[in-house]
């Protein structure tokens, strides 16, 4: 009885024998001798363990096929496209904004050719990389000047470190927000070297609170737009316009952090009004900071716009070089900002606005077309229903505001939550992972962000009850 597994082990083909198989030769041609040999050794190790438990001895061709599968899996990018059916348009974990085709083309051109990144073609001398965006941003916001860094947290950090290093930064307690990943505004302020001075209370702050806090050690007044939460009830805050008057009277700069930031009035698309960058400048802020990859709809970036003299000081800060943008994102931002010059076609050309503005009736029709496709794939174990739902903007923007949407609500016939979890995992295991959300005893696939309907249907066709997409 004990000799049978040993006999099987002796019958396992050698690495050299597997390498001589036709499929292994093709694998070597594609991936190289070293990688192919390593994958074959790994396949043999698993086969050896299986043989010890009574499994049949695999043929050389089987081991070569196993090695090829391993190498193909290792070759697949970790940063993979997915179908975002979560109902969150700007999903931080799924990359936030989809950038426009014009921005993609600009990035490809910048990567494939030498570009005048910091070279002034007119003078033949060194230029500034922010020059590529300066005219556009000033035109779209009314600001005097602009500088750009790698995200809005970096923008806030750079402003505070430049203007309030070792000095006091005065901010309302109700605006000391926490953003994604447990990054808290007080921590950023401390790291920037500012001395945090909190005024008011969590729910009520008055002009007198700021006035009593300003003194010789004050470096700036700091207003934070609470875009990722709301306080209702017995509340009071000092508006940006009021605060700008106080700042001018006391001779200290007012910094307004908009967070998500938008260049246009979003109410025209059925969304709640968010203060625009232009409005913040018009209200008297000396500097405004905001993101490029949220409501603006571009790549990850942080903008600092406002007074030319303050931005000149900021640009002399050595931290600016550590936080600056590369040519790819500058190219994408320039292309994205140019789209705003034609507001009549902005929804059509900017994915973020296009997805947010999709009519619910169109999404319902899409859900009705896809429901029988998904039902056929999943079989009788699951029920697939067209359901109304609400989508959200995401990434901390307008957290209490949702837009009407529709999707596919998938429920298990037994009501099993474990079966839904297994189904969600199986959908994530498809060639292009499908990401939804589980709520109210159903797996909801919100279709607001689905533009490639045919692609999703083809992707679902690879779901096999007996394959990697099976529900356990």
Fold topology:
Layout: H1 3-11, H2 15-19, H3 22-31, H4 33-52, H5 60-75, E1 83-84, H6 101-112, E2 119-120, E3 125-126, H7 131-141, E4 145-149, H8 152-163, E5 168-172, E6 178-179, E7 183-184, H9 185-191, E8 195-199, H10 207-213, E9 218-224, H11 240-250, E10 254-259, H12 277-282, E11 287-291, E12 302-306, H13 308-315, H14 319-323, H15 327-339, H16 346-349, H17 351-356, H18 360-378, E13 382-394, E14 397-412, H19 417-428, E15 434-435, E16 437-439, E17 442-446, H20 453-460
Parallel strand pairs: 1-15, 5-8, 5-9, 9-10, 10-11
Antiparallel strand pairs: 2-3, 4-12, 6-7, 11-12, 13-14, 14-17, 16-17
How is this structure best summarized?
With 472 residues, the protein is of the alpha/beta class. It is built from 20 helices and 17 strands. The protein is 43% helix and 18% strand.
Global Rg: 28 Å
Classify the secondary structure makeup into a structural class: alpha/beta
> First CA to last CA: what distance?
34 Å
- Which shape, going by the Cα principal axes? globular
Provide the β-strand percentage band: 15-25%
Q: Which strand order spans the largest sheet, edge to edge or round the barrel?
A: 4-12-11-10-9-5-8
Mean pLDDT: 90
**What's the story with the biggest beta sheet?**
7 strands, mixed
Low-confidence stretches: 466-472
What portion of residues is helical? Answer: 40-55%
Query: How many beta-strand segments?
Result: 17
**Number of helical regions:** 20
